[in-house]
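Bench log, entry 3. Co-assembly request; chain sequences pasted below exactly as received.
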Amino acid sequence: MDPTVGELSEGRILRRILERLGESNALVGPGDDAAVIAAADGRVVATVDTLVHGPDFRLAWSSAFDLGYKAAAVNLADVAAMGATPTALLVALAMPDATRLSFVTGIADGLRAACRELAPGCRVEGGDLTVSDTLTIAVTALGALAGRAPVLRSGAEPGDLVAVAGDLGRAARGLGILFERFTDAEGHPVPVDESLLDHAELADLAAQLRPSPPVWLGPEAADAGATAMMDVSDGLVLDASRMAAASDVTIALESAVLGPDIASALAGGEDHALLATFPADRPLPHGFVRVGVVLARGQDAVLVDGRPHDRRGGWDPYRDWDSGTG
Amino acid sequence: MDPTVGELSEGRILRRILERLGESNALVGPGDDAAVIAAADGRVVATVDTLVHGPDFRLAWSSAFDLGYKAAAVNLADVAAMGATPTALLVALAMPDATRLSFVTGIADGLRAACRELAPGCRVEGGDLTVSDTLTIAVTALGALAGRAPVLRSGAEPGDLVAVAGDLGRAARGLGILFERFTDAEGHPVPVDESLLDHAELADLAAQLRPSPPVWLGPEAADAGATAMMDVSDGLVLDASRMAAASDVTIALESAVLGPDIASALAGGEDHALLATFPADRPLPHGFVRVGVVLARGQDAVLVDGRPHDRRGGWDPYRDWDSGTG
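Structure output for the full assembly:
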């Protein structure tokens, strides 16, 4: 028996979701008009990001668990990028009537697993269920700075080192594997046969479907004196250019440290690595790798090995989605 | 010139939205990986609610301004129902490529107007834009308790008075006007001709399209000793039965005070009035009207004029949506 959500009441679906989410950590958890979350230092970090069926995922490729995991992970990374520790998620889930209950509980399992692995102490503490023709998962993440100043995009100073924690290019390679090897003759997605993939390809695929950004390194970077930080969601060059613009500096990247697949590392999106700048006079925190230096603002926002880099990276949903779903 | 969002970059759309939202009130406002919002007493109230094209609104009936206004208002009411004052909204907006820029800025104008009129000091401080086949607006609202205990659904005690602040039944009558008078022969929505409506009907329509719950009375109710509170989103009887279940009491409603249209007042959803219980030994706070008393738990969660009331009210998207859009 695996009923569709259209066959169940909102209350019953909600109860089945709550069973999967575990104990609340909040002052007031799910079940009232709103949750109440501790914000011990008198501030709360808050961000929202949405996964939409079609532009953001294909159901032939992503399991329900994957979707819950990714929806949580991308938001946890945004909290980390401020130098904060995630404290709670709120999840707005809009689903077609024909969605199976097992799919919904799979999303809940993925949300919980991402919290457990990437941000222990953080839980889903509230949310909203509605019906929609388009499966949509909007996750709000809250976080605590524990007395730290938030680390903004705008604080990079000439002379700082530029460093990254987490993968670069893997998620984009994973997406390439999906489009190149798991589509039919018309280009429609077909299920992934993992037995066709080697170890490195499986890791790339996992980075795309279930990204695991180093959330715990966000607060560590802040404590180590990071002057600017952001998560790399749209590719290193594009996101570095945003940081450079916000800080009015030029970021000079060094490709030698980016591994063998430099193109993916520079332009590939969705890795959710942490990009940060640090004063040059002290060691980088463990987990961060130097990828460049900050220069006084020149003609270009970003240089790669001393030259402008004009290939636009990343993913712009308004330019790049081809209207496919699957 | 009114381009579609598909013709613009995410960055340009975002700039046009931010222009309409006014100055940030946050410690860190829009533009970084996350916002940072003050939470002076060490706690933050947080809730999310979503409007989806089809089940929640029809574009023939709701303007972009209406949608922004309603998406904000329903969430502001949830914050108020905890006894808190709204401090910030985060808005996840998923839109078809063909959406006009003027529609997006209309949503922004509606969000801003709702904050200005219902919760001064609250602003949109963050959000997310993505493309989707289904127009979807998920709003997260944050709020501050200013040292108050949150008012839960579970605190009603036998002997308390039951009271409501705000309209009951108006939004349901407004929806009735739309379905009865502004649909074509096939039942598809057609634009509203306001010249066909009298003053009372226009007010009912406004309550449906742009609800204005008494958000400022939430903290006042808490200060006046409210023992339980919630917002009436699914109809008085259904929501009172939820409060009764959470508090393990029976709520006895008195229909004489509900005005001439008792059926709509008991069963109509989407008014977002505040339902609260108060100790009987002190005056009700200004703006609240007595609608009943709390009894020790009996056989029925809710009584109306001493009798069980079995007509299910409210709106369950999983049971009630007919898949229409328009």
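Residues 153-172+211-317 of chain A form a domain with the Phosphoribosyl-aminoimidazole Synthetase; Chain A, domain 2 fold (CATH 3.90.650.10). Chain A is about 30% helix and 25% strand.
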